[in-house]
């Protein structure tokens, strides 16, 4: 089954997200959307940003990935639901070379890959659960362009996919443009916090209220007073 009738995240949003850390996007999206950490970068240092082109395969079979490589558009990210199976690789050097030539932005596989040494020397961002030298079969049908579950996250075709050394975050296409302002504010807030740390301003403004709300700090007692008492008790 192949579905080509879906909308992709718009180009202006993709461009705006190109340099945003995955952690920032995860934070402003309610700390949701990050794939399980078992799906990790095969080559650290590469950034991934593109539109999800979803592929659902049978464990250990990559027939539909071959089809997807012919159908995906430049800037798409192959997001493959391989069911977490690592008994055989779903992609390797040749298929990833095809992806590069086709202009794809990257590959995310909930399963295994192979030819890791070569892929680590390449320019294509590849995320997978691990590697296995076993090759796959190419006989089983599947689905392209339908929602999939990858790394514990539902990914719909056309969603925003961003990855870096921390991992991969998926943002719903319908929410992607709306979260940009929040992401920019988060980047600036963290930059200001780093400046404060460098200047010796170590107390978080929100910390006292959060400690009161949790019951860890009694109402009516200030955090500064607790710090001073703690330091004196340890003298």
List the helices and strands and how they pair.
Layout: H1 11-17, H2 22-28, E1 40-41, E2 48-56, H3 63-71, E3 76-91, H4 93-101, E4 106-113, H5 116-119, E5 126-131, E6 143-144, E7 148-150, E8 153-155, E9 160-164, E10 167-171, H6 173-176, H7 180-198, H8 207-214, H9 223-233
Helix pairs in contact: 2-7
Describe the structure.
With 235 residues, the protein is α/β, with parallel strands linked by helices. It folds into two domains: 11-183, Ribonuclease E inhibitor RraA/RraA-like (Glucose Oxidase, domain 1); 203-235, no CATH class. It has nine helices and ten strands. Strands 1, 2, 3, 4, 5, 6, 9 and 10 form an eight-stranded mixed beta sheet that branches. A two-stranded antiparallel sheet has the order 7-8. Residues 173-200 form a coiled coil. It comes from Paracandidimonas soli. GO terms for molecular function: metal ion binding. Pfam families: RraA-like.
Describe the structure concisely.
This protein folds into two domains: 11-183, Glucose Oxidase, domain 1 (3-Layer(bba) Sandwich), CATH 3.50.30; 203-235, no CATH class. The chain has helices at 11-17, 22-28, 63-71, 93-101, 116-119, 173-176, 180-198, 207-214, 223-233, and strands spanning 40-41, 48-56, 76-91, 106-113, 126-131, 143-144, 148-150, 153-155, 160-164, 167-171.
